[in-house]
Amino acid sequence: MRSIFLTGGSGFIGREVLRLLNEADNCVVTCLARRPEMLAAFRAVKVVSGDLLDPTTYSNAIPSGATVLHLAAATGNASPATHWTVNVEGTRRLLEAGRKQNIDRIIFVSSIATTFRDQRYYHYAQAKAEAERLVRTSGLPYLIVRPTMVVGAGSPIQAALRRLAGAPAMIVFGSGKAMVQPIHAGELARCLVALCMSRSRHGIIEVGGPHRLPIEALIQAYRREIRGRVGPVIHVPTDPLRKILAVLEKVLPGRLPVTAGQLGMFVNDGCARANPLPETTAPAHESSSTA
Prior knowledge:
Helix 1 (12-23) packs across helix 5, helix 2 packs parallel to helix 3 (123-136) and helix 4 (156-166) packs across helix 6. The chain has helices at residues 12-23, 80-100, 123-136, 156-166, 185-197, 215-227, 238-251; strands spanning 2-7, 27-33, 45-49, 67-70, 105-109, 142-147, 150-151, 170-173, 179-180, 183-184, 203-207, 213-214, 233-236. It has a domain at 2-155 and 182-211: Rossmann fold, CATH 3.40.50.720. It contains seven helices and 13 strands. The radius of gyration is 19 Å and the shape is globular. It is of the alpha/beta class.
């Protein structure tokens, strides 16, 4: 019987993971939540009310020998300070609590953005990269999972790209040639649950969907869904726009619809490296690398 301690269960990906774990009969699941009432539907899951940044609210609820699946994160247009506090300091405190409780290992869900060559202004990617370093040097057995662009109902990235696709003239930042490899939230959740049930440890796993395509082609695909046909494209240069957004973010932190960092997906390839995982831990189209 597997024991799993989950953070971020009320999030976009976390709810998909909880749905699968709630139906499993070979594990005992404890989930940390700031608002436990949001997870009332998952009756087979023990929900602990607490704050990631305050281990005194949850440390004793982490079962000894558990696998910790760490999904909780600040995303989107959060301020640089929030990204660092939640994604770095929150991870540090969870690792400290995990060591005290003698956990079996931690599975940290990071982002393919940590591999971006150009991370200027991308505070989320920078914070995730530092959190990865903390996990790697924690002394705990670990897996680091780097999903590519995650799509599906409720996906903030998908919603933003569909807005660009639905404009009278389709807007694409940069050349539109950056390669993406979208993965559906349900597929990612199945991979994460499979990893929880496996004995894999001490590795970095990059997880992507079955198709790689230029980001402009992805936006055009959304446009065909919305309008029934492809349409004209306006290419907006990214460098001057990112510089302007970086300045505005200092004046209006957390209030812009898009950040300079988020435009990084238009200038960096966001595909997983192709080293297939064993079939027992992930679908064949996903890929991994050993740390």
